[in-house]
Specification:
With 70 residues, the chain is an all-beta fold. The chain has no helices and four strands. Strands 2-1-3-4 form a four-stranded antiparallel beta sheet, with no helix packed on it. Strand 1 and strand 2 form a beta hairpin. The radius of gyration is 13 Å and the shape is elongated. The relative contact order is 0.30.
Length: 70
């Protein structure tokens, strides 16, 4: 699958485009260090992961996950 991952704050502002058009294997992991686009640490709070997967057949699937920075 090809993956795109964007991170948004609780107000809906994009704070990081974490992964752009990366090929993702079945055992791959993607981590986020809690920093925004320009490597500045973000405040504690809730953040939304917007994950887009595109499989080999061209089927697009979107997930939204909530994470918390402590």
């Amino acid at each position: 699958s090809i993956v795109n991952i964007r991170i948004f704050d609780s107000l809906g502002n994009e704070v990081k485009y974490l992964v752009k058009n990366q090929v993702l294997g079945s055992n791959d992991e993607i981590c986020w260090d809690g920093k925004q686009q320009y490597e500045v640490p973000l405040a504690q709070g809730h953040y939304i992961w917007w994950i887009e997967l595109l499989n080999a057949n061209g089927v697009r699937t979107i997930f939204r996950l909530l994470s918390t920075l402590d």
